[in-house]
Amino acid sequence: MGMTEDEKVFKDPVHGYIYVHDPVVWDLINTREMQRLRRIRQLGTTYFAYPGGDHSRFSHSLGVYEVIRQMIQAFDRNNYEWPHAFDRLAMVSGLLHDVGHAPFSHALEKTMGTRHENWSVAIIRDAKTEVHQVLESVEPGFAEQVAEVIQKTFSNRLIVSMVSGQLDADRLDYLMRDSIATGVDYGTFDLARIIRVMRPLNDRLVVRQSGLHTVEAYLLARYFMYWQVYFHPVSRAGEVLLRIILERVKELVDSGRAPFMTHPALEPFLRGTVTLDQYLSLDDSALYNAFSVWREGSDAILRDLCGRFLDRRLFKEMPWPAGQNGRLERVRTVVEAAGYDPNYYCIVDETGTVYYDYYLGSQREPNQENAIWLYDQANARLTEMSSLSLPIQAIAEEHRPVRRLYVPAEVLGNERFGKLMDDRTDGGA
């Protein structure tokens, strides 16, 4: 592997410094497709709740590359068997894993019916992209290898697990990065020690058994980050507004009343007919610009929603357990009586995740690739982590989706709404 003339260094709040020695990595960082990630927020609308949480998807992508680079270094220091022929592939796959993110990162995926992984692979495979051209300059077919790692179909499962698994470079970087940016201290963990206690074993990454408590701290940090940051009700309120703005615009476009499109890629993006070139021209600023124009437009609903988003006049939330369909219809009636279209001003938001789940499918069959394995070197034995950890058993079994009702603050203070919420005898499904 060649070296650049000078070592390239990025100052970073998570890793201190991010080092680039490989000219291929440096060339990829400087492609148009990677530089676009500077203009996309890592955490979507989380900055509404945590003002510091407005860091970019670019900084995270560099961080994932750096974690993989540090892993490989640590394997060498410990004299572990590691397939060095895949060094560049692992680091490049980590760098490019998120290159296909839409504006506001994950917030738009459900609305637009798209997945960033599919766009990442399309960017890597398309002969016209700068990323593809840099990859193919390594050797013909290298771009396809990177695409396979990101799609989890690459033949070497060890490389795949470094980029995407229960204890992968992606999660190790974003949890630390997001907790530092938002100021949520209990989201941090001992990253350096986690890298020290990891080792490659055959086709998977495992953890030395002495590292049990370090990995427990990582999984608990992940648990707290989901509840306190990613599922924060104010962050979700911003995402709800973002979603319904785009749904309203789609409705206007479909009915022939499209608002002024401030960017040529917006309408095909909303219609689901966007080309790769058009997709790559979109970033957070394209949507902000559209919202600032639409808040002065002719459609009253779109005008109000865009103003609310830009000025942080978010909807207010209340818990909304499952099985309240009857009550929801009554809430919609109250919202409509207050002068709001309930299709846009009465939203049930549901989200949920598992924090460490090594089971697969509804039958809860153990899935070995999803597990974190502890390695007892003295006895050459592997043990699945939660069987030795009571805290992890507890969160592995916790499957509680978060459901909230979002309505405008004006409706929440409405007397009719208050009476409806106090009436607990009615409203079952």
List the helices and strands and how they pair.
Elements: E1 8-12, E2 16-20, H1 23-29, H2 32-35, H3 57-77, H4 87-96, H5 109-112, H6 116-125, H7 130-138, H8 142-150, H9 157-163, H10 169-182, H11 191-197, E3 198-201, E4 204-208, H12 212-230, H13 233-254, H14 266-271, H15 276-280, H16 284-294, H17 300-311, E5 316-319, H18 325-337, H19 342-345, E6 347-351, E7 359-360, E8 365-366, E9 373-376, E10 381-384, H20 390-396, E11 402-407, H21 409-412, H22 415-422
Helix pairs in contact: 1-4, 3-4, 3-10, 4-8, 4-9, 6-8, 10-12, 13-17, 16-17
Task: From the structure above, extract its key features.
429 residues; alpha+beta; Hypothetical protein af1432; Growth Hormone, Chain: A; three-stranded antiparallel sheet; 50% helix; disordered C terminus
Characterization of this structure:
A hairpin with a 2-residue loop joins strand 3 and strand 4. The longest helix is centred in the middle third of the chain and has 22 residues, at 233-254. The protein is an alpha+beta fold and 429 residues long. It has helices spanning 23-29, 32-35, 57-77, 87-96, 109-112, 116-125, 130-138, 142-150, 157-163, 169-182, 191-197, 212-230, 233-254, 266-271, 276-280, 284-294, 300-311, 325-337, 342-345, 390-396, 409-412, 415-422, and strands at 8-12, 16-20, 198-201, 204-208, 316-319, 347-351, 359-360, 365-366, 373-376, 381-384, 402-407.
